[in-house]
Design goal:
Layout: H1 2-18, E1 19-25, E2 31-38, E3 41-48, E4 51-58, E5 61-63, E6 66-68, E7 73-87, E8 95-108, E9 114-122, E10 125-132, E11 140-146, E12 149-151, E13 156-162, E14 182-186, E15 197-205, E16 209-216, E17 226-227, E18 234-238, E19 254-256, E20 259-260, E21 263-269, H2 273-277, H3 280-283, E22 298-301, H4 304-307, H5 314-327, E23 331-334, H6 338-341, H7 343-356, E24 360-366, H8 385-398, E25 402-406, H9 413-428, E26 432-435, H10 444-447, E27 451-454, H11 461-465, H12 467-471, H13 473-477, H14 484-487, H15 515-524, E28 529-532, H16 538-541, H17 544-552, E29 559-566, E30 570-577, E31 580-587, E32 593-598, E33 606-612, E34 618-624, E35 630-635, E36 640-644
Parallel strand pairs: 22-23, 22-28, 23-24, 24-25, 25-26, 26-27
Antiparallel strand pairs: 1-2, 2-3, 3-4, 5-6, 5-11, 7-8, 8-9, 9-10, 10-20, 10-21, 11-19, 12-18, 13-14, 13-15, 15-16, 16-21, 17-18, 29-30, 30-31, 31-36, 32-35, 33-34, 33-36
Helix pairs in contact: 5-7, 8-9
The structure holds calcium ion (CA).
């Protein structure tokens, strides 16, 4: 009998050793993460309101300082509650209250080296990361592999964008997050190039739940990551391709110890509201430096989008400065080729002319460098610190307010360090930064006070290049609020009021969307410096109420409220600027969409409605909203509507 009791005790302790479970739930208890050790291997599950969002999914890191993916034992666990408020002028919302429960688990591997796993769980967001320590004299490491996976249930469908091959595309400038998202694809479908997917990644878990997977807090201390191909429903963290950055620099990130990996984030909801409204990319990071001055948001005109390369000449730039002045816009963006076509002296006099019209200047640069063959200048100014600081000193003397830097080399740590170096130097010279041909921003609005936005999307230029993108414009616009634009500011360069997409509005590609759709995207797409694609002829060839709308549209938002929509089909959202609300809706369908909306912010008010009539002609009228805030609107196919109050 005594022998048997001993045996039971041994079995019990083996069971305890074989499976250790730790849980952390959101403050409202609806979102639960369970972390387990199964035979020394860490994994986790995610459950929201009883719906299994992630099935058992792997965790772990393999580094040159130790293998933290197996033979782990739990050393300790700590719980904290986080309650912080912060203000942020360059995202979808200005005052943010972040409340989360935090679980920090410390595990030891077979060599007794410890790794820390931190999970922050707020009501609809999970952010987690790994922390490594200095191990005796080992004060640095290379992270060879991150095992973190996302194992979605079999009924899940996906909204994903494929990773492009390194050094592919025009002048070998890819990957640059400019691939097409596929809506509602099967879970285990191979990606276009068999290289996995870029962030952010949207998943529809049956009919029950939505999950958006991304990452944040990526600085020069790490690389940008992506998702692997699905292995039976599991997508794993993958590092850059070896060929990125022209093959230079390692794909695996290096860490000085002690340090943490970036945060992996999962936003979860039964509706899309938490996905569209999430602030998790900014909640878990802090500013890395103070702004050297107040950076002013605003609107800009730019000739390049509609008038293309030939417009990089003094007179055409003057035409767009005059357009900006007439619109009351704060900026002109002087795009590629100014170095050859104008030169520094003529540029200086152009900047003076702009300033005389109360228009400030953003100026375009090529980031390269050796990472691709993009030929446009100005180049060789941003890729090394000596040239960069010399250039920025001159720019500051001329009163230039911001730069648009294009054509980066990928997601390797070496390239992320270049982004960070440009941002940091630019702040020293009072310059804001927009990135193009670039990676996804990952919490950068909060990390870097002079960072404005990034392209990292199939932007407006594609509407000029290829009719295919005009045919799909409404579909793509109805994806961005749920995916790309919800995690970071997006330099789309939109609101095209030409019907034909060329200089004289008489040739080139055909715009399929309505004028009201275009106006709506000025609010739908979020970035605090909007480069609008309007042209001088639009002052006289579109109804004056359209121009009046574009004159007053703000670029900063105190609040963003998701009203209704479905990725790729339609989207209705409301944004507040001060006391003024802007409600916008767009329809990607081929038939009119009638929707019932409940809009408490407009209840009992008289609003300005901008809408397409049933012949898709734009009109503006005054509408009295019921005291209940309930209304029914019809959005025309590839059309839009707006309310302003
Ligand atoms: Ca581009």
């Amino acid at each position: 009998m005594k022998k048997m009791l001993t045996l039971v005790a041994v079995l019990l302790s083996c069971a305890a050793f074989a499976q250790e479970k730790l849980t952390v739930a959101s403050p409202d208890k609806q979102l639960k993460v369970e972390i387990s050790l199964q035979h020394g291997k860490p994994s986790y599950t995610v459950n929201y309101q009883g719906i299994q969002v992630l099935e058992n999914s792997p965790l772990g890191l393999v580094t040159t300082a130790g293998d933290f993916s197996q033979s782990l034992t739990l050393v300790k666990q700590e719980s904290h509650s986080i309650d912080k408020t912060y203000t942020q002028s360059r995202i979808k919302k200005s005052e943010i209250h972040y409340v989360a429960n935090q679980l920090i688990c410390t595990f030891a591997n077979a060599e007794k080296k410890e790794v820390q796993l931190t999970f922050n769980v707020s009501n609809n967001d999970i952010a987690f990361r790994y922390g490594l320590f200095q191990y005796k004299q080992t004060a640095s490491c290379i992270v060879e592999k991150e095992l973190t996976g996302f194992h979605f249930p079999a009924q899940t469908t996906t909204f994903l964008s494929p990773q492009a091959p390194a050094s592919s595309g025009w002048m070998r400038t890819k990957p640059s997050y400019e691939e097409e998202y596929q809506a509602e694809a099967p879970l285990n479908q191979a990606s276009k190039y068999r290289l996995g997917y870029t962030f952010p990644a949207l998943f529809h878990v049956g009919k029950d739940a939505w999950a958006l997977v991304s990452e944040t807090g990526v600085t020069g201390a790490y690389c940008g990551s992506r998702l692997s191909e699905s292995q039976e429903g599991t997508f794993s963290i993958a590092f850059p391709e070896k060929g990125e950055n022209n093959g230079h620099g390692t794909a695996e990130p290096g860490l000085a110890l002690p340090d943490n990996t970036p945060w992996r984030t999962i936003t979860v909801g039964t509706s899309l509201k938490p996905i569209v409204e999430t602030t998790v990319p900014f909640d878990v990071v802090e500013p890395l430096y103070a702004p050297s001055q107040v950076y002013k948001p605003g609107r800009a005109t730019w000739s390049w989008i509609m008038w293309q390369d030939e417009s990089m000449n003094y007179n055409d730039q003057v035409a767009f400065i005059d357009l900006a002045a007439k619109m009351g816009y704060e900026y002109i963006l002087i795009d590629a080729l100014w170095d050859k076509n104008l030169g520094y002296e003529r540029l200086a006099s152009l900047i003076k002319y702009a300033q005389s019209k109360k228009v400030d200047v953003f100026l375009w640069y090529n980031s390269n460098g050796f990472w691709n063959d993009a030929p446009q200048g100005a180049k060789q100014c941003m890729n090394n610190p000596i040239a960069r600081k010399k250039e920025m000193k001159w720019l500051k003397e001329q009163g230039v307010k911001g730069l648009k830097v294009d054509f980066f080399g990928g997601d390797k740590q070496e390239t992320i360090q270049l982004y960070e170096a440009i941002l940091s130097d630019a702040n020293d010279y009072g310059l804001m930064i927009i990135f193009h041909g670039c990676t996804l921003p990952r919490g950068w609005e909060r990390l870097y006070p002079n960072y404005v936005s990034s392209e990292a999307v199939l932007a407006s230029e594609n509407l000029i290049f290829n009719q295919h993108f005009d045919d799909n414009e409404a579909f793509n616009a109805c994806l961005h609020p749920f995916i790309r634009n919800t995690v970071g500011s997006m330099d789309f360069g939109g609101t095209l009021l030409n019907k034909r997409l060329n200089r004289n509005n008489n040739g080139g590609n055909v715009r399929k969307t309505t004028d009201i759709f275009q106006l709506a995207t000025a609010v739908l797409f979020q970035t605090t410096v909007q480069n609008f694609a309007i042209t001088p002829n639009n002052l006289t060839d579109v109804p004056s109420f359209e121009i009046d709308f574009m004159k007053q549209v703000p670029t900063t938002w105190d609040e963003t409220v998701f009203v209704e929509g479905y990725p790729g089909k339609y989207c209705v959202l409301a944004r507040r600027h001060g006391t003024q609300w802007y409600l916008v809706g767009v329809n990607a369908g081929k038939t009119p969409l009638q929707i019932k909306l409940n809009l408490p912010m407009f209840a009992g008010k008289t609003v300005n409605e901008y809408i397409d009539d049933d012949k898709k002609n734009p009109l503006m009228r005054s509408v009295q909203v019921k005291n209940t805030g309930e209304t029914t609107v019809t959005i025309q196919p590839e059309g839009g509507f707006m309310w302003v109050k």
